[in-house]
Specification:
136 residues, alpha+beta, Glutaredoxin, 4 helices, disordered C terminus
Length: 136
């Protein structure tokens, strides 16, 4: 079973942000697809942040203001903002139809770029696939 873990600071209510409402719906669909979805709020479960080496190091380095941090099967995949559906599909290796998309192709991406071309979300300028902090 695949596992998606989101470490966040829930100071914003889902009802206040349509993008977060969409994420909540997507997470419900993922649960229906036998993906284990975990969400940890820093105020409600600070021990979860301390238990995970990646999360603890990230928090000490960047602080709470750079949350959320998203892990797939224990490995960090994105930081500083919530994932798009297309990213969830790629990381969890799901058919796009699972989240209501019909743009499936052999390359896996709908924009023609490879994952090596995608810049790291932390702003370091490196490609996402080469970010040294997450892949210790």
């Amino acid at each position: 079973m695949r596992k998606l873990s989101i470490y966040e600071s829930l100071r914003t209510c889902f009802a206040d942000d349509p993008a977060l409402e969409d994420l909540a719906k997507s997470l419900d669909v993922l649960r229906d697809q036998n993906i284990k979805v975990e969400r940890f709020d820093i105020e409600a479960a600070p021990e979860a942040f301390e238990r995970n080496e990646y999360v603890s190091r990230y928090l000490k380095t960047f602080g709470e203001e750079r949350l959320p941090l998203v892990l797939v099967d224990g490995f960090p995949v994105i930081a500083g903002h919530y994932p798009e559906d297309s990213e969830l599909i790629d990381w969890l290796e799901l058919p796009p139809e699972v989240l209501g998309y019909e743009w499936a192709d052999e390359g896996g991406r709908d924009d023609g770029a490879s994952d090596a071309d995608v810049p790291c979300p932390c702003g370091c300028g490196k490609p996402k696939s080469k970010h040294g902090f997450f892949w210790m």
